DNA sequence: GATGAATGAGATTTCATTCAT
DNA sequence: TATGAATGAAATCTCATTCAT
C-alpha cells in the first residue's frame, strides 16, 4: 500500500456492499434516517419503514435503538483506526501521513455523507450521550495522530514547542469542521472542492507546524 | 479597545452577574443542567429544581424548553459576533485579529465552560435540531472570519490560492475541537494550557496560511 | 376494645372514606380494575379510565403500576397486622384471639371483597412476583398467629406436639381458602354464611388443636 | 389398594419418566421455568432454551403458551382427582380418606415441588386467568371432599351442623397453605416435616370436625 | 408572579405467534 | 419434525405543556 502516493485507497467499508441481509438493510436504513431526522427525532419505526422490514426485526438484531447507532459508529470508526495505524506504520513523511488521513476522512464523507454526518453529529461531539460512551475509541484516533506529531518533532520536522495532543486535536478539528460545513450546506460540495479541502488542511496545518528547515524541504 | 495587544477583554456576558432575577436564575440553572445531562436527557423539572423555582415558572418566562436553549445560545453567540465585528473593524494585522478571536473563544470557555459546552454540543453541531434553527446566526461568525481572510489575501498576507470559506472553517474548527478536548477531559485544562492553546492555533493555522513574505515579517 | 366479645370492630381502613383526593380515587379504581381483570390483564389506562383521571396522573402519584398494588397491599395488610397485635395483647383465651382474627379477615372480605380478592390473588400467593416482594410483611402475620399458638401450648390449652408454625399456616390457609371460595363463587355469600364460616374455622381448627382438658372447658 | 394404611401410593405421574420425547421435554422444562420465573415473567423462548429445543417447536406441540400450562395442570389435577375418587370408593373411615388425600398432596409436592408450585401459584388461586378457566376441574376436587364430609355427617362421625362445602374448603386450604409455606421457604422441608404436616392437618381438621362419640373411637 | 397538579400524545420495548425452509 | 427469522399488536412509562389557584 502506498497511501502517500495519493492512490487514496477508497475508504469503503461494509456499507459499500449491496445486500439482502436484513441486518445490513436495517443498518443502512438507520444511517439514512438518522442523517435525515437525527437520532433523537426519529423513531425505531422510521428505521423499520425505511428498511422495509417489520418493527420487531430491528429488535431481533439490535438490543436497542442505541445499539444501532453504536454499531454504525464502531464499524466505521474502526475502519478508520485501522487505516490510520496502517498509514502510521509506513515509512513516509508525516505530512504524507496526515495527508492520507485527511484524504481518508474527506473521502469517507464523499463516499457516504449520511454515515459521516451521523457519526459527527450524533457521536464525536455528543459529550453527554454517545460521545461519552465511545470516548476511548474516539480518543484512539486523536492519540494516533498525536503520536505521529511527537515523532515528527523528534525528527525535527515539526516545531518542538507545540503540544502534540493539542496539535492533533486542531488538525482533526479542522477536518471535522470542513465536513460540518458540507453537512450544513455551508460549503460547496462539488468534487473539486473535496480535493482542495484535503490540500487546504494539510497545507495549512502542516505548514504551520513545520520548522523552517523542513518547510524548505517540503516546498522543494 | 486594543484587542490585538492581548489585553484579552474578558468575555463576560450576562451570565457573569449574580442575580436574583428569576428569569436569569432559570437560564443559569439551565446551563448547568444542560451541561451535566444534555438537553435531551434533562427534564424541564430538572431545570426548575436546579434553579430552586417552581415547575411552571419556567413556562412563565419561556415558551418552551427549546426557547431556553435558544436564549442561551443567542445571548452568547451575539456577544461573540459583536466582538468579532469589533475586532474586524480595528486597523490591525489579520494574525492579530484571529488571535483575538481565538483568545475570546478560549476565554469564553475558561470563564464559563458549561455554557460553551452546551453551545458546542447542543447547537453548533446539532445539524438536525438547534444547529439547523440557528444556522444563519452561526454562519455569520464563519463569514466574518472568512471576510478577514479574503482581505488578508487581497493584502498579500495570506496565500491567494486558499478558499477563504474553507480556511475560516478550518480555523474555527481547530479552536472548537480544542474546546471539545477540554469538554471531554482529553486535554489538560490548567491555566497555562489555555494560553498555549490560543498560541498554538494562531501559530499553526496562520503559519500555514501566510505567504513566505508575510511570514518573515510576522516572525520578526 | 373487647375484640373477644364479638363486637367485631369493623375492619374499615382508608378505603372506607369517600374522597375527592385524586390519589385515593386512583387507588380505589385500581382495586376495582385489578379485581375485575387481574393485575396483569389490565392496563394502566384502565385504572385511569375507571378513576376518571388522565393517564399520566397515575404516574404523578405512583412510580409504576407495581407501586399501585404495593400500596394497596401494604395499606390493608398493615391494618390487619395492627389488629392482630392488638388482639394478641388482650388478656383473652387463644380461641377468642383466633376467633377475632378469623372474624377480622372475613369481615374485611365482606366489607371490601375486591380489595381482599386482589390481595389474595395477586399478592399472598404470588410467589414469583408480589408475594416474594412482600414476603416479610406477609410472614409477620403468620408469625404473630404462630406466637399465639406457642403461648397456648405453654398454657396447656393447645396440644404440645403440634408444630406452631404449621398450625398457624393451616389456620390462616383455611380462612384464605374460604375467601377463595367466595372469590370463585363456589360458596354462598349471604350474610349468614360469613358468620357461619367464622364459626366453622374456629370450631374446626381450634377444636382439633385443643387438649381434652381445655376442650371440656371451652365447651362448657 | 389400601390407601388408608399409609402405604402412600407414590403420586408419580407422567413427569416421573425420563424421556427423550420432545413434547415431554418441553413440558418438563416449562415446569422448571414457570416455577423459577412465574408464568407471566417467562418467555416462550425461555422454555425452549431450558428444553434445549428450537423456539418454534413449542408451537408445534402446543397451540399457545397457555396450552402448556393448561396441559401441566390438567395432567396433574386429573391424577389427583382419580386418586380422590379411588379413595372415596374404598370402605374406610373418613379420617383415613382425608389422611390419604392430605398425604397424596403433600407427597406430590415432595416429589415434584416445581410442578405443585406452578399449579398452586399459577392456577388454583389465579381467579382472573387459569383459575377461572379450570374452575370446574378444580371444583371437582372440592366437591369430592365435600361429598366425603356429607357422608361422614350422615354416618354421625362428623358434626352435623358443619356446612360440608365450607369444611372441604377449609381442609383443602389448610393443606395448600402448608405447601405455600414450603414454596415461600417459610416452613422447614426436611422429610420428617412432610410427615408431621400430614398428621397435623388430619389431626387438627378432623379433630375439630368429629363428634365427641367418633372422637372417642378414633382416639382409641 | 408563582405554584405544582393535571393532561395525554408518543416513544421504546416486549414477546406471543406465524411461517418459509 | 425441526428451525429461528420475521411480524406487529400492545403495554409501560416519560415528560413537555397547560391551567386553575
Explain what the structure shows.
The structure is a homotetramer of 220-residue chains. Helices cover 71% and strands 0% of the residues of chain A. With 220 residues, chain A is mainly alpha-helical. Chain A has two domains: 9-62, Homeodomain-like (Arc Repressor Mutant, subunit A, Orthogonal Bundle); 64-219, Orthogonal Bundle (Tetracycline Repressor, domain 2), CATH 1.10.357. The longest helix of chain A has 25 residues, at 65-89. Mean pLDDT of chain A is 90; it is low at 1-10 and 12-19. Chains in contact: A-B, C-D. Chains A and B meet through helix 6, helix 8, helix 9 and helix 10 of A and helix 6, helix 8, helix 9 and helix 10 of B. The first copy, chain A, binds a DNA duplex (21 and 21 nucleotides) through helix 3.
Features:
11 helices; Tetracycline Repressor, domain 2; Arc Repressor Mutant, subunit A; 2 domains; 220 residues; mainly alpha; DNA-binding; disordered N terminus; homotetramer
What is the number of strand segments of chain A?
Answer: 0
Radius of gyration of chain A: 19 Å
Please estimate the helix content of chain A: over 70%
CATH superfamily of the largest domain in chain A: Tetracycline Repressor, domain 2
Query: What kind of assembly state do the chains in view correspond to?
Result: homotetramer
CATH class of the largest domain in chain A: Mainly Alpha
User: Largest chain interface and its two residue counts?
Assistant: A-B, 52 and 52 residues
Amino acid at each position: 500500500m502506498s497511501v502517500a502516493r495519493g492512490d487514496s485507497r477508497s475508504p469503503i467499508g461494509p456499507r459499500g456492499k449491496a445486500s439482502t441481509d436484513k441486518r445490513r438493510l436495517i443498518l443502512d436504513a438507520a444511517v439514512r434516517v438518522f442523517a435525515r431526522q437525527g437520532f433523537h427525532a426519529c423513531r425505531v419505526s422510521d428505521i423499520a419503514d425505511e428498511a422495509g422490514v417489520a418493527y420487531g426485526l430491528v429488535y431481533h438484531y439490535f438490543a436497542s435503538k442505541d445499539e444501532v447507532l453504536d454499531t454504525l459508529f464502531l464499524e466505521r470508526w474502526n475502519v478508520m483506526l485501522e487505516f490510520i495505524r496502517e498509514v502510521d506504520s509506513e515509512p513516509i513523511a508525516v505530512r504524507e501521513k496526515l495527508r492520507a488521513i485527511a484524504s481518508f476522512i474527506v473521502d469517507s464523507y464523499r463516499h457516504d455523507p449520511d454515515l459521516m454526518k451521523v457519526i459527527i453529529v450524533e457521536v464525536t461531539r455528543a459529550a453527554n450521550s454517545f460521545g461519552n460512551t465511545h470516548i476511548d475509541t474516539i480518543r484512539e484516533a486523536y492519540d494516533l495522530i498525536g503520536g505521529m506529531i511527537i515523532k515528527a518533532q523528534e525528527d525535527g520536522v515539526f516545531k518542538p514547542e507545540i503540544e502534540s495532543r493539542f496539535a492533533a486535536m486542531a488538525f482533526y478539528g479542522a477536518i471535522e469542521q470542513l465536513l460540518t460545513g458540507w453537512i450544513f450546506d455551508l460549503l460547496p460540495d462539488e468534487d473539486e472542492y473535496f480535493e482542495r479541502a484535503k490540500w487546504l488542511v494539510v497545507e495549512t496545518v502542516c505548514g504551520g507546524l513545520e520548522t523552517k528547515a523542513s518547510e524548505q524541504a517540503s516546498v522543494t
